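Deliverable D5.2: sample structural annotation.
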Amino acid sequence: MDKSSQDRPARKQQQRSLRTQQKLLDAAIEAFSECGFKGTSTRDIAERAGVHHPLITYHFKNKDRLWRSSVDRIWREFNATLAQALLETDENDPRAQMAAAIRAYVRFGQQQPALHRMTVQESSVPNPRLDWLVETHLRPFFDRAVTRISGLQQHGVVPPGNPALLFNMIRGAAGSLTALNLELKATSGVDLNSSETVDELADMIVRIFLPGEVPRP
């Protein structure tokens, strides 16, 4: 038997293992964003994923590790989306770069509302998961965004004021609306499942928070 034939069962097993992990992460993201960490059981996640419950322990050790892996995947996908949006925008135009970042943030939040919902779920009381989320993902994102906002304020593009507050006002305008999609549709008929409405929201946020233009040399 040649080596490729011997390796084939191992590769199939590895592929099955990866598929199981992805199923568990998909189910965990859905469950944690709906019910929070405390309101979600590993049995519920296993049922949603359609896999045997002991496989959670096999792949992720415990619920806390599964939660962190879920958050890591969301932020890995978001950061890749954000990086691509910036790559496609003129790097010498800081206003255009900030506008592209806002649009990417709004659109990703609509496609993956767990980006905001899982943060909201953990923000009601102090806990180690929130501490980890802040240090691992939220603070680096905050630091980069506030640096951009401060630079744009110097050019008169962004309104004056505390750049940290401005950043969180932008976050709130984007994140809270996409996270409240069901309520918005019921009360005001605004449907953020519509790509046209999402684009309109992103454009409005850009116009409100980036009203100026960078002076041309």
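Annotation notes: The chain has a mean pLDDT of 92. Residues 153 and 160 are 6 Å apart (CA to CA).
The annotation will be released with the project's public dataset once the embargo ends.
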